[in-house]
Amino acid sequence: MTEQYHAPTLNGFIARGGHERRPAVLVAAFEGWNDAGSAASDAVRRILDTSAPEHVATIGLDDYYDYQFTRPTSKLTERGREVQWPQTDIYRIAQPAADADLVVVLGVEPTFRWQGFCAQILQYAAAQNVRAALTLGALLADVPHTRPVPTSMSSDDPGLQEHFNITASGYSGPTGIPSVLGIELQRSGVPTMSLWAQLSHYVAQAPSPRVQLALVELLEELLPASIPAQQLREDAVAWKLGVDELAASDPDVSKYVQQLEEATDASELPEASGETIAREFERYLRRRGRYRTDGQGPDFEI
């Protein structure tokens, strides 16, 4: 009998140590500069939408936001017209069958006082016994929409590097609140990793179901969590077909996409090692087992 493959998870990483109190994994995403196509925040929002979260705290309001930069919105409700202010909320999701609960941080990148903003989140993380963290982001890049969504995982923590077989990010330059929060969590003793996905810059508008789906599938592997995504998969296929049609209708865009495809294919050739192919095949089998219930027909191609 072939031994079943078990992918490393953050819950499994936490389970290696004993804990007097129920531990938690923190997952964070923020709307704004780090959230191309709203893919990261929408992916994390799906965790909340498919669970019964307990609201822990709200951070933000007048202390951290410039309302001329991040405008509040008004909405007509049954109670009359209401103003929805930019803010960041913290939730806890119980996972009795798992080794750890989830603490979800979801909101808007602040305008002011980033260090104070992160310090508040760290206080709540300590109170919720957070023992590992994952920050998400999405960025615009010169990648074609016709190829698999590029994703990357990295961590500065040696334990997480060994557990997930990943390395530290080599990036240096301007950064956003997910990276700042991740650094502060790591400094406070919480092992932290980051997950990023790339969105084709010529289709930058939200929503971006294809990039969101790539993040959701990785979230399911890392936490693990069960996030119903059948409709999202169908939306991702429809989105790609729609972009295909738009690109085909404009010769200049079509030529540009072809150039991106050629550059992407050429750059990925050296990466087609046996280890890379095996890893991608294992991921395919896990997705196939998760989404194919009738045993017939191909999986969605996204």
UniProtKB/TrEMBL annotation:
A Pfam family this chain is assigned to: PAC2
Protein name in the entry: ATP-grasp superfamily ATP-dependent carboligase
Cited InterPro entries: Proteasome_assmbl_chaperone_2, PSMG2_sf, Rv2714-like
Originating species: Glutamicibacter protophormiae (Brevibacterium protophormiae)
Domain of life: Bacteria
